Amino acid sequence: MPDLLLAESLPASLPDLWAYWAPFRDRVRSAEPTHAHRVLAAWQRARTAAGDEITLVTANVDDLHERAGSERAHHLHGSVFTTTCLSPACPGRVDGDARSDPSTSPCPVCGGATRPGLVLFGEVVDLDAQWAARRMLRQCEALVAIGTSGAVTPPYSWLRYARDVGAPSIQVNPDPDAGDGFDLHVRLEADVAAPLLFET
């Protein structure tokens, strides 16, 4: 892993981090949601209209769930389109993709330097996303993990919450070595599995 993705490398790595992140942001901007994104969004909307509460938590930093039509996606690792203050003590944050070069824009709260609003290695994942997931896991009917290996926290720890309320856990991942601990493994690509699991 490049040093610029380590939290301990800041602030010295900030110019390199912005240089790395800008082309990645451009690739995300030009990407399109997959079939799985669209199926999941349609299912979430249909279940919400029927009175169910569906919590979508993603480890991805893109906005493909939102562009597919998902009403709300909690991002564990931040967003490629969010800019935050370099100072951990400052709440300065700008959401959205309005600025072409956020690296030159000062923090809207303190005027200091900004950084990409993603979780670097060595940082804590987004607490709002974690709490949203834990709250729903305490009353969930099922936990479906799509694309994750399930080997890292917090997703791996969510298995315990689902088990505590008697909810089955399902992993969608074509890798035969991924995800020990799930009740059911669907060894298919997400685009193939999503229509089978989330018919509306």
Automatic annotation (TrEMBL):
Record-linked InterPro entries: NAD-dep_sirtuin_deacylases, Sirtuin, Ssirtuin_cat_dom
Binding-site list for Zn(2+): C85, C90, C107, C110
List of catalytic residues: H77
Top-level taxonomic group: Bacteria
EC number: 2.3.1.286
Domain spans labelled Deacetylase sirtuin-type: 1-200
Keyword set, alphabetical order: Metal-binding, Zinc
Record flagged with keyword Zinc: yes
GO molecular function terms noted in the UniProt entry: histone deacetylase activity, NAD-dependent; metal ion binding; NAD+ binding
Listed PROSITE patterns: SIRTUIN
Record protein name field: protein acetyllysine N-acetyltransferase
